[in-house]
Amino acid sequence: MRTRIAAAAIAALLATGAVACSSSDTSADPAACKTAMKKQFDEAMKAGSSATPATRPGACDGIDDKTAQRLANEIMKDGLGDAMESAMPSLDSDDAATMPDADDIQASLDALEDEIDDTLDEYGITPTP
Questions:
Q1: pLDDT digits (tens, 9 = 90+) for 41-65
Q2: Tens digit of pLDDT for each residue in 58-106?
Q3: In 10 A of CB 87, how many CB atoms?
Q4: pLDDT attached to residue 21
């Protein structure tokens, strides 16, 4: 689910024109541009699949295309990493999934067999060996 949201956010960021053409300006601040783009990315993540394209942040005026692309890629890479991390269980946590042992599997099979037998009995079906 979070991966789909991240994909929508990436699509929104790419569609924003955040990486659209601009002239190079030595007074442009790449850090401020990245912060503004990150804010748009976070808002798109919160909006999920209903995220809509935004406009290029004003803080990115004067940032050349190559730098804007690099910043967008960094933001997306970090965002996807966070989304993937939150979607995967932590192996260090107590709530991490554990592999069932043979006794767990046998207990599940026995319970399933009992459930099937009960259902067959309920409908008057006698299984043939």
A1: 888 888 877 878 778 889 999 999 8
A2: 999 999 989 988 998 888 888 777 777 766 666 555 555 677 888 888 9
A3: 11
A4: 43
The total number of residues shown for the chain amounts to: 129
User: Residue 66 CB: number of other CB atoms within 10 A?
Assistant: 10
Q: How far apart are CA 45 and CA 123, in angstroms?
A: 50
Residue 126 CB contacts under 8 Å (≥ 6 apart), including other chains: 120
CA distance 64 to 61: 9
Three-class SS state of 128: coil
CA 59 vs CA 12, 28, 32, 33, 76: distances in Å: 18, 8, 6, 5, 18
Counting Cβ atoms within 10 Å, is residue 33 exposed (0-12), middle (13-18) or buried (19+)?
buried
What is the CB neighbour count within 10 angstroms for residue 69? 14
